[in-house]
Design a protein that fits this description.
The chain has about 550 residues and is an all-alpha fold. About 65% of the residues lie in helices and about 0% in strands. It is built from 24 helices and 2 strands. Strands 1-2 form a two-stranded antiparallel ribbon. α1 runs antiparallel to α2, α1 packs parallel to α3 and α6 packs parallel to α8. The protein is elongated and about 125 Å long. The N terminus is likely disordered.
C-alpha cells in the first residue's frame, strides 16, 4: 500500500543524522501556501505533500532521516483546497482526508503487526528487523492520527460552495465524525464549532432546490439549520457537554430564516430569537445581541408576501412588540449587548411606514415621540436621528390621510429643532404629503405646499434649495388642489416652469408631472412643440442645456 515509491529517497543521507530540512520547515511552507486561496497554491501544496509521502514510504529503516508528513501537513493542504471555494477544491480536500485516514489505519495495522513480530521473533535478526518496522510505523501512527480540525476543514470546504449538494456532503463528513466517536474515538465527536459550521452553511445556502426523478422540489434550508440546532439541544439535554449551543448556534438559525423566502419566515426568525432569549436562563453566555434583533425587525419589513397572505398579520405591531421585549430584557439583565439601538427603532418606524393603512402613520409618530423622550429615561443612544424623522414623515406622506400635510410639516419643524438642519429631502417629504393628501374642510395641503416651497427658494442653504423632485411635486399639487376654474391656475403653472428652468431642474420626472398636470396646449406652448408633434417626440437632450444643468445625467 504505502511501502513503494522512491520519491526523493535518494536525496537524503541514510545516517542517524536529522534531515537538514525537517517536517517543521515543510509545514511552514504548506501553511503559507494554504493561506493563498488560489488553486495554483493548493496544487503546489498537494505536490509537496506527495513528495513528503513518497520520501517517508521509502524510509524503510524508520530512522527519522526524512521529513515525514504529520497531521499538520495534511491539515494545511486540506485547508489550501478548502480556501479555493470550488467544487474541485472541496472534493480534493475530502479525498485528502480519505488518504490521511487510510495512511493512519495502515500505519496502526503495520505497527501492531510489528509488535507481534518482535514478540514472536525466532532470531535476533528477525527481531531487529521487526523493531525497525515497528519504529517506522509508530512514527506514522503517532503523527497521522486524524483530528477534528481536519474533518472541520473539509466540512467548511463544502459549506463554502453554498449549494444543496455541498451541504449534504458537509453533513456526511460530520456523520463520519459521529460514527468514529461511537467506535471509540471520542476526540472526533463533533463539538459546538462543527455544528455551527453546518448551521451557518445551511443559513448561507443559495440553491435550495433538488431534482429527483425529473421533479423539482423545494428544500427548506432554514428548517434544516434549525433541525441541527434541535439536535444540539437534544445532545445537551442528554448529558453531552461538548456540543452545547452557543450564541452563534442560535444566530445561524436566525440568519437562516432571515434569508429565507418561505411564507412565515419572519415569524420563524422571531421564534428562533425567542428561543435564544429563553436559553439565557440555562446558559447566561447565550443572549440576543442587537444585530440579531435588527435583522429580525428588518425581516418583518421585507416579508411583504407574508403580510399580503395574512400569514404575518400586523407585522409592524409585532416588530414593535419585539422591540419592547428586548427593552425589558435589558432592564432586567443590564447587558448592553441586548439594548436596542437607533437602528432597531428606525426598523420599526420603517415597518409602520410600509403598511400604508389608516392609523399606522400615527403609530410611527407615537414611537418617534417616545424616542425623543429617551434621553430623560437614560437611553441617550436611541435619540431620533435624520433617518428617524424622515421615515416618520414618509409614513404620513404615503398614508393619504386627511391632515397628513399638516402632520408632516409639524414633523419637519421638530426635525429641524432636534437636528439643527434639514436638506431638501426633508422638505420634499412635506411636498410629497401635500401631493397625496386628500382635500378637506379641515386641511389645506396647497397652502402648506406653497409655504414650504417658498421657504426652500428663500433659503441661503444650497442643500435646502428646490430640486427636480420639489418641482415635480409642485406641479402635481397644483393640479390636484387647484380647481380647473381657478383664475391663477395657468399662471402658476407658467411661473413654476420658468423657475424650474432658471434653476436648471428640468428632468424626466418634471416633464412627466407637467404632462399629467396641465392642459396639452399649455404643455406644447411651454416646450415649443411643433404642430402635430406628440408628447413622445419631446427629447430631453434637445432642450437647452441650461434648463437641465443641475439634474443628474441619469434623470
Amino acid at each position: 500500500a504505502f511501502t513503494g515509491g522512491n520519491g526523493g529517497a535518494g536525496k537524503h543521507n541514510r545516517s542517524n543524522a536529522k534531515p537538514l530540512v525537517d517536517t517543521v520547515v515543510y509545514n511552514a511552507v504548506l501553511s503559507a501556501l494554504a493561506r493563498s486561496g488560489e488553486r495554483r497554491s493548493a496544487q503546489q501544496a498537494d505536490e509537496l505533500l506527495r513528495q513528503m509521502e513518497d520520501d517517508a514510504d521509502a524510509d524503510e529503516e524508520g530512522l527519522d532521516t526524512v521529513p515525514r508528513p504529520d497531521i499538520s501537513s495534511y491539515t494545511s493542504v486540506i485547508y489550501a483546497w478548502a480556501n479555493t471555494e470550488t467544487v474541485e477544491g472541496a472534493q480534493r480536500a475530502e479525498a485528502l482526508l480519505d488518504r490521511l485516514v487510510e495512511r493512519y489505519e495502515y500505519a496502526v495495522k503495520e505497527r501492531d503487526n510489528a509488535i507481534s513480530a518482535v514478540k514472536n521473533a525466532a532470531s535476533k535478526m528477525e527481531k531487529a528487523e521487526a523493531q525497525l518496522k515497528r519504529k517506522r510505523h509508530s512514527l506514522d501512527a503517532k503523527g497521522l492520527k486524524p483530528d477534528s480540525v481536519c474533518y472541520a476543514s473539509v466540512m467548511r470546504a463544502y459549506t463554502k460552495l453554498r449549494t444543496l449538494d455541498g451541504m449534504q456532503k458537509a453533513e456526511t463528513v460530520m456523520q463520519r465524525m459521529e460514527d468514529a466517536a461511537r467506535s471509540g474515538n471520542e476526540k472526533l465527536r463533533p463539538g459546538t464549532n462543527s455544528f455551527n459550521t453546518i448551521i451557518f452553511g445551511w443559513a448561507n445556502c443559495r440553491n435550495p432546490k433538488t431534482s429527483e426523478a425529473n421533479t423539482v422540489t423545494s428544500f427548506s434550508t432554514a428548517q434544516r439549520a434549525e433541525d441541527i440546532l434541535n439536535h444540539m439541544i437534544q445532545l445537551y439535554e442528554g448529558g453531552y457537554g461538548a456540543a452545547v449551543p452557543d450564541s452563534r448556534s442560535f444566530s445561524g438559525v436566525i440568519q437562516a430564516w432571515v434569508h429565507s423566502k418561505e411564507p412565515g419566515a419572519a415569524l420563524r426568525a422571531r421564534d428562533a430569537l425567542f428561543r435564544q432569549d429563553d436559553f439565557n436562563a440555562i446558559d447566561d453566555s447565550v443572549y440576543v445581541d442587537v444585530s440579531n434583533l435588527n435583522a429580525v425587525l428588518k425581516k418583518f419589513g421585507e416579508d411583504n408576501s407574508d403580510v399580503k397572505n395574512e400569514i404575518v398579520d400586523d407585522a409592524a405591531e409585532l416588530s414593535e412588540a419585539l422591540l419592547e421585549r428586548m427593552i425589558v430584557r435589558y432592564q432586567e439583565s443590564g447587558n448592553k449587548q441586548t439594548l436596542p439601538n437607533i437602528f432597531s427603532y428606525n426598523r420599526v418606524l420603517n415597518n409602520y411606514a410600509k403598511v400604508r393603512r389608516e392609523g399606522y402613520a400615527q403609530k410611527a409618530e407615537d414611537l418617534l415621540t417616545r424616542m425623543e423622550a429617551n434621553e430623560n429615561e437614560g437611553y441617550s443612544n436611541v435619540m431620533p436621528d435624520d433617518v428617524s424623522y424622515r421615515t416618520c414623515m414618509n409614513a404620513w406622506a404615503v398614508s393619504k390621510e386627511v391632515g397628513s400635510a399638516e402632520k408632516t410639516e409639524a414633523l419637519l419643524k421638530r426635525y429641524i429643532e432636534m437636528c439643527g438642519m434639514c436638506s431638501s429631502n426633508g422638505f420634499n417629504l412635506v411636498l410629497k404629503a401635500c401631493a397625496t393628501s386628500p382635500p378637506s374642510d379641515g386641511s389645506n395641503p396647497f397652502g402648506v405646499a406653497v409655504k414650504i416651497f417658498h421657504q426652500m427658494r428663500d433659503s441661503d442653504d444650497p442643500k435646502v434649495k428646490p430640486d427636480h423632485a420639489s418641482y415635480s411635486y409642485m406641479f402635481i399639487i397644483c393640479n390636484k388642489h387647484l380647481p380647473d376654474n381657478h383664475t391663477q391656475r395657468l399662471q402658476i403653472f407658467k411661473k413654476l416652469f420658468r423657475e424650474c428652468c432658471e434653476d436648471g431642474m428640468i428632468s424626466s420626472f418634471v416633464v412627466d408631472a407637467m404632462r399629467n398636470s396641465m392642459p396639452r396646449d399649455l404643455f406644447d406652448e411651454l416646450f415649443k412643440l411643433k404642430e402635430n408633434a406628440t408628447v413622445d417626440d419631446l427629447v430631453l437632450n434637445d432642450l437647452p442645456a441650461e434648463w437641465r444643468r443641475n439634474v443628474p445625467d441619469r434623470l
